[in-house]
Amino acid sequence: MNHRIFQSSGIVGLILLVGSLTFTTHGASDDDWPSFRGRDASGVALGHATVTTWNIETGENVLWKTPIPGLAHSSPVIWGDRLFVTTAVKQGEEPELKVGLYGSVGSVEDDSVHQMKVYCLDKNSGEILWERTSIEAVPKVKRHPKGSHAASTPATDGQYVLAFFASEGLYCYDVEGNLKWSKDFGVLTSSWYVMEDAEWGFSSSPIIHEDKVIVQCDIMEDSFLTALDLATGRELWRTSRNEVPTWSTPTIDVREGRSQVICNGWKHIGGYDLETGAELWKISGGGDIPVPTPIVAHDLIYLTSAHGRMAPRIAIDVMAKGEIELTEEDPQIAWMYPNRGNYMQTPIVYGDLIYFCKDDGIVSCYDAKTGEEHFRNRLGSGQSGFTASPVAADGKLYYTSEYGEIHVIKIGKEFESLAVNTMDTECMATPAISEGKIYWRTRGEVIAIGVK
Known about the structure:
By secondary structure, the chain is mainly beta.
């Protein structure tokens, strides 16, 4: 291992030069997008060219558009020729959605009955193959004005499809739409921990690895991480977490000598043994409302969070052990920036570069191994929020603003904007990519973009 000290934008960091990017999701091909951010939450699709420009109004490079009722921020997932999405359909008037840059800790007051639904589409034509209503009920918890009762992205392994509606339950279907099992975790209250009445809704997504379902539930009381049997829903293990509500999806990393579940957090960022749930390593601190998912590349774990005293961007040794101090001096931290963290977006690694984007659209590019900064640049005017996480393919990054502007930038050490396209509606969900086609979940549709 080669360590060196660097000075970048006035911040000193410890650098660890290791590893390379790998994909480990069991059974998934390069053309599948099985869970949030695709394979291993990387956000990267390999092997196909993708378009740079399109036009929703004229239909240029718009392959199909399929209306989906309700309000959802969950992403599409894809296996083979099938695409799955979830939604929450409110009875009566359209649900409130307030996007943009603003500060609000309030909740939407709504006691309407909602249908929590799962849709299966043909990814090539947009035809709805089946739809199922998992539950019809008044949601047990409230949501943020920018939130949704269907914020957790489904997961699939080509045989099963998981749809998680938080306090309304986890549902497992086969790919033909037959319900195999469901699980009730009780009321999962996701509030701002200093103000219990500020209920914002749940968003952590389930993930599948081989025969296991992993679910992270960081809530107001009795937070936990659990593994379920994929075929039956039987609980295999459950590990308590001393944690306030968080909104991050866990990541699995499997390599020689270690199989672990990696969780973002505030009181408890950490890694857990995949087979037993035993804690492997732990960090406390960072932003106190963590949302971004951990990602792994170059034998490093990348984590970020924001809000509160700290807002770090951190790269940690993937074989970390025990208690780790959130300082640049800890030998298990490869590099870090203490106060540049992302509030909402999961970062993305493409080759040797890692990109972070803040809510106001400021994109930063670093060397993924060393943390050396290459650029910082703003997307757009700074008036639009960015909640959806970026995806990448064909040497291009796609950033989605809440107002539906899609910024396409070229992968590289210098900032280069290739295009700005508009979806003509709000976009809160992270898109999916398969075989060179990009699938956006907008306010009212799933839209497929590709060469036409």
